[in-house]
Amino acid sequence: MSKFLDSIKARAKQNKKTIILPESMDKRTFAAAEQVLKEGIANLIIIGTPEQIAENGKGYDISGATIINPFTYEKTEEYINLFVELRKSKGLTYEEAKKTALEDYMYYACLMVKAGDADGVVSGACHSTANTLRPSLQIIKTKPGVKLVSAFFLMVVPDCEYGANGTFIFADSGLEQNPDPEKLAAIAACSAESFRLLVQEEPIVAMLSHSTKGSAKHADVDKVVEATRLCKEANPTLKVDGELQVDAAIVPSVGQSKAPGSPVAGKANVLVFPDLDAGNSGYKLVQRLAKAEAYGPVTQGIAKPINDLSRGCSAEDIVGVVAITCVQAQ
Predict the structure, then answer these.
(1) What CA–CA distance (Å, rounded) separates 136 from 107?
(2) Closest Cα to residue 162, out of 48, 254, 224?
(3) In the β-sheet with 306-308, what is the strand arrangement from edge to edge?
(4) 9/71 same-domain check
(5) Could you read off the pLDDT of 22-61 as tens digits, one per residue?
(6) Whose CA is closest to 271, among 298, 296, 242?
(7) Dist CA 147 CA 44 (whole Å)
(8) Which member of 45, 144, 233, 308 has the greatest number of CB atoms within 10 A?
(9) Is the residue at 113 inside a domain?
(10) CA pair distance 103, 294, nearest whole angstrom
């Protein structure tokens, strides 16, 4: 396990937060919960009926977790009323709210966070990204001043002299399909903030393209140039530059020859991809070919930390994302 994850776990333990795991229908949830509790990373709430807990938690020691059965919990009524209140402008009835909260534990988990009874949620081992994020956007909503919710992967590349000792953020690599210049600029600013929070180093942001500083002409390049301009305008103290090809962004000699005088070229540690196809492919290539650790997709821009797991995740991955969620919640 990387030094990065060790440091995140140590920070999580210093100021323990309460994280909800709503997927009691998956054995990986319980394997991860046992480890989180053993290491003292977070306080955990697992949502499920006694039958679900007994069936999937068999053989795991989760005695330190709080188990909540939504069908009998004394605050369920309060959560349903809160849900109705939040969505009444959309015509949500009490009956619909009750059915949704009891059938989809992700909604229930988000209501608990909204009510102040927990600090964050980690879900997605057996649910799609949309099923994880829809409830959080309806109930918890975006952070004040943030234009959109996006997702990044925190990449830790072994034996790598680039980035922050091989540590990078790749964004958006999980959510926003084809961001326009305004959205791309917002993703860049949010990702820089996430890098500063999680890696505790100065973010150096490259707006990626197949072109470096006008080497190619295309509407896709124009989009990145405009996004860079908007990001600089809104964040005058941020080190951000574009458009840059990946080698010009991270390799000092290439950066110097292709973009001389750029404050970012050759030094970037936050890579902002022009669209989801590039971002998703980029992180998977680095994960598989460079044997990098990939933590995510970590969401940014929601008022409270709600994180989506990839469906191929291991119990170890869940532990890592729980630790990251704790640090975001601090």
Answers:
(1) 8
(2) 254
(3) 66-68, 43-47, 18-21, 120-123, 306-308
(4) yes
(5) 999 999 999 999 999 999 999 999 999 999 999 999 999 9
(6) 242
(7) 30
(8) 308
(9) yes
(10) 31
The answer to the question of residue 30 being in a domain is: yes
Distance of CA 27 to the CA centre of its chain: 22
Global pTM reads 0.90
∠ Cα 248 251 254 (to 5°): 50
Tokens 């081992």 belong to 125
Residue 261 sits in which domain range? 150-289
- Specify the residue for token string 């994880």: 132
Give every CB contact of residue 283 below 8 A, 6+ residues apart in sequence. Answer: 153, 155, 170, 173, 294, 296
Look up residue 84 and give its two tokens.
């109705």
Residue from 70, 130, 78 nearest 101 by CA = 70
Q: Is residue 216 part of a domain?
A: yes
- Whether omega before 181 lies within 30 degrees of 0, making that bond cis, reads no
DSSP 204-259: EEEEE-SSSTTSS--HHHHHHHHHHHHHHHH-TTSEEEEEE-HHHHH-HHHHHHHS
Q: Yes or no: say if 57 and 34 are a contact pair by the CB < 8 Å rule.
A: no
